[in-house]
Amino acid sequence: MSVKDRMSGNEAVAYAIKQVNPDVMPAFPITPSTEIPQLVSSYIANNEMDTEFIPVESEHSSMSATIGAEAAGARSLTATSSCGLALMWEELLLAASNRMPCVLALVNRTLSGPININCDHSDAMGARDTGWIQIFAESNQEAYDNFIQAYPIAEDPRVHLPVMICQDGFITSHAVMNIELNEDNEVKEFVGEYKPEEFLLNNNKPIAIGPYAISSYVMEARKAQEEAMENSKEVIIEVAKRYKERFGRGFELFEEYRLDDADYIMVIMGSAAGTAKQAVDDLREKGMKVGVLKIRVFRPFPAEELAKALSNAKGIAIMERTESYNGHGGPLCAELRAALYENKVFTNVVCYTYGLGGRDFTVDHVYEVFEEVKDVTENGKKVTQHRYINLRTNKA
Amino acid sequence: MRTDISKINEATPYEELTEGLITFAGGTARDFHTGEWRTDTPVFDKEACKQCLLCAPACPDGCIPVKDSKREDFDYDHCKGCGICAKVCPFNAIKMVEGSEPK
C-alpha cells in the first residue's frame, strides 16, 4: 500500500533516504547544499533512522568520506548541489574508478559565474564524464522513485559504480507536489541489506583499494570500468521493472510521450519535460503531431535506443540546459547528434539552449520551438543552431 | 574472488584484472621488489658495527632486519638505497656505494 502525501523534491529524497536508512552520510551543510542533509539530520536527531551523519568541512571532504565509508564496508551517500559538486570533482572520479557503489543526491543548480544558484544542468553536465551513473527526474515523485532504485543498481555485481540521482533545483527541489510514498518495510525489502563480499574493515580478508597503477595497467582498468557502465544499462532496466512490479510506477532509460506517430519530437531532460508535455497536449489538440522524449538516464548514454526511438521523426529539437562554450552546443546535443549519425538516422535536428540560471521556460517557448522545427523541415528555413530561448537580444 | 598477485602481470588481459585494480589479498607489498629501483647501495661493515641499532628504526622501508637485539644484513629486495641509515650510523659501519649491487 502506498501513502499519499505532499512534499518538496528535497523532502521526497530525504524521506527516501530515511526509508533506505544507509549506514553513513557525510555532508557539508551550507550553501550551495540543499535541505536534504538538514532533513536527514533531523530524522537522525529524532531517532527515526540510525545513519551515521558526518558533518565535514567541505564537499571535497564529504565525497572523500563517502568513498572511505563505502570502502570500509558501509552503505554510504552524500548530497550536494552546484559548486558543491564542482568541489567534489577529484573524488567523483575516484569513487567511480575504485568501483564504489555509493550514491549522491544532486539538486541541479547552475555553476558560477555570474554568481547564481538557480536551476540548470551545469553541475551534473560538468560531472558527466566522471564515471557516475546519472539519473534525472521530472518530478518530486520521480526523484523519490529514482533514489530507491539507486542502491540496487549501484550494488549489482555487474555494475559496482556510483549513482547520481538528479533533480532540478527549486523547480523540483523546493516546489511541493502530491506524491505517493511506499511503505517503509517494502522499501527496505526492495533495497535489501548491504552485504559486500569484500571490504576494508574485514580483518580476516585484507584488501587494498585505490592503488597506484603504472601505464601497463591504466588502459585495462579504464576499459573494465567503461564496460561496467555499459552493463549498467540492463541492470537499470531490470531494477526499474522490479520497481514497477512492486510499486506500480514504471521507468525506462527514457520516456516516450506521444511519440508513436509524432512528426516532430522535443528531446529534453528534467522538470522542463512536464512543460513540454503540456505544450504537446495543446498542439495535438490543434492537429500537430508532436511528442516529447524525456531522457531519464544520461549516463550510460542510451545512444542506440534513442536513435531507434527517434528514427521516424521528421524534425527533432534537442533542448540543452547548460552551456559548453565550444561553439558547437552542449553535451546532450553533441552526443545525441552523434548517436543519430552513427545509427544512420538522418533528419532535421535543431539544438536549443534554455533555462540557464533558472530562466523561465514556458509552454509558449515549446510552441515556438515546434513551429520553428516544422518551418525548418517543411520550408527549409535556415536557423542558427544552439539558439538561446527566452533571451533578450537586438538581433531579429 | 581473492587475488593471486603472482598471476597478475603486464601481460594480463583486462578481463582478468581485479575490479578497480583492488587487491583482494594482504601483505602483497612483500612480493614487490622495490630494491630494483636502487641506484646507490648501502654496504654493512659487521666489524665496525657496535649494534647500537640507531639505523633499523630510521629505515623508511624496514629493510634492516633485527634478530635477538642484533641487526642483520640489509634486505636488498626492498632497500631503495636512500642512504638515511648511512647518515645516522655514528660508527661509519654503513657505506654507500654506487650502483645497485652491494660491493
SSE pattern of chain A:
EHEHEHEHHEHEHEEHHEEHEEHEHEHE
What fold name goes in the CATH topology slot of the largest domain in chain B?
Answer: Alpha-Beta Plaits
Alpha carbon gap, first and last residue of chain A: 56 Å
Helices of chain B, by number, come to: 2
Describe the structure.
The complex is a heterodimer of chains A (396) and B (103). With 396 residues, chain A is α/β, with parallel strands linked by helices. Chain A is built from 13 helices and 15 strands. Chain A is 41% helix and 19% strand. In chain A, α1 crosses α2 and α11 crosses α12. Chain B is mainly beta and 103 residues long. Chain B has 2 domains: 32 residues, no CATH class; 69 residues, Alpha-Beta Plaits (2-Layer Sandwich). Chain B has 2 helices and 4 strands. A two-stranded antiparallel ribbon of chain B has the order 1-4. A two-stranded antiparallel sheet of chain B has the order 2-3. Chain B is elongated. At the A-B interface, α9 of A face loops of B.
List keywords for this structure.
heterodimer; A: 396 residues; alpha/beta; Rossmann fold; 2 domains; six-stranded mixed beta sheet; five-stranded mixed beta sheet; 19% strand; globular; B: 103 residues; Alpha-Beta Plaits; two-stranded antiparallel ribbon; 4 strands
Summed up:
With about 400 residues, chain A is an alpha/beta fold. Chain A has helices at about 10-20, 35-45, 60-70, 80-85, 90-95, 120-125, 140-155, 185-190, 215-245, 270-285, 305-310, 330-340, 365-380; strands at about 5-10, 25, 50-55, 75-80, 105-110, 135, 165-170, 175-180, 255, 265-270, 290-295, 295-300, 315-320, 350-355, 385-390. In chain A, helix 13 (about 365-380) links the parallel strand 14 and strand 15.
